[in-house]
Specification:
With 281 residues, the chain is mainly β. It has 2 helices and 18 strands. Strand 17 and strand 18 form a beta hairpin. The chain starts with a helix and ends with a strand.
């Protein structure tokens, strides 16, 4: 009888440990909710503000470098704190800067229907949105399938300074993940036949979904925000295996222009969002 009770006690303890850890995780997330505003809410630090831009379109266009500069130089030096296996810079970004008109440009795509009785597939509409340095929308151009105007003639691309394999838990990173608040266990990754028949394989399937609480460092100040995030691995053994859908685009050092910078949130199937980081007026 005593042996049975011991086994039962061990089982109860083993079941209780995950529950206690989950409760502690949620309590910390609830506490951080008070000081980490959600993206889209009013977010600021002592000298800087982070606010959302008004975009036309849904999916953000990602532009790759076209011999513009050797990103292996500046981007590599900016990411020296990373482990060698994670030291893999991106090859482009989302934001363009017109050096003549001094305005920022962001390309988007959306699908629109022309109407009509026969219905039919929606058409692809390309947009380019223009912003001044305060983040005010100053205009846009749109056209089906492609933009005819050479709008990038005097443009430079702002690189994405978040590498392909970021170390989110490294405090020296541009964006530091302070906490991941667990909200839901995803079960799709447990399906043995997931992705069967697809030419691209199964694709990403995180174990956990929830909210990430981030510190964005700008000139020594921390701008705090929270947004959706996911975590790979059931047991949380790997410290940096998070997916955030975030990008951080800013000027290269040669411009001597640290601001404005841009925080990008582009979920795989959701609405792309762009946030400008600028000094307070």
């Amino acid at each position: 009888m005593k042996k049975v009770l011991k086994i039962a006690l061990i089982v109860v303890i083993l079941l209780a440990i995950p529950a206690i850890l989950l409760i502690a995780n949620r309590l910390k997330a609830h506490r951080l909710d008070l000081t980490y505003a959600a993206l889209g809410d009013h977010i600021e630090s002592r000298n800087f503000i982070l606010e959302e831009l008004t975009l036309k379109g849904k999916t953000l266009e990602y532009y790759r470098f076209d011999g513009e500069f050797d990103q292996a130089g500046e981007l590599d030096s900016a990411l020296q704190h990373l482990e060698p296996a994670r030291h893999w810079p991106k090859d482009g970004g989302y934001v363009q800067f017109d050096t003549l008109k001094k305005q920022f440009m962001i390309g988007t795509t959306e699908y629109v229907s022309r109407g009509g009785k026969d219905g039919g597939l929606p058409d692809e509409l390309k947009n380019v949105c223009y912003f001044d340095e305060k983040g005010k929308l100053t205009g846009h151009i749109s056209n089906l399938y492609s933009i005819k105007k050479d709008w990038r003639q005097h443009a430079v691309l702002l690189p994405d300074f978040i590498p392909n394999f970021p170390q989110w838990k490294d405090r020296r990173s541009h964006i530091y993940l302070r906490h991941f608040g667990i909200e839901r266990l995803e079960t799709s990754w447990l399906k043995p036949f997931r992705g069967m028949g697809s030419p691209n394989g199964a694709g990403a399937a995180p174990a956990w979904s929830g909210t990430g609480y981030f510190d964005l460092t700008v000139e020594g100040e921390q701008i705090r925000f929270r947004c959706p995030a996911t975590k790979d691995g059931l047991l949380f053994l790997a410290a940096n295996d998070f997916d955030t859908d975030l990008s951080y685009c800013r000027f290269r050092k040669v411009f001597r222009k640290p601001l404005p910078a841009f925080l990008i949130y582009q979920p795989r199937f959701g609405q792309g969002r762009v946030f400008i980081i600028r000094r307070k007026l």
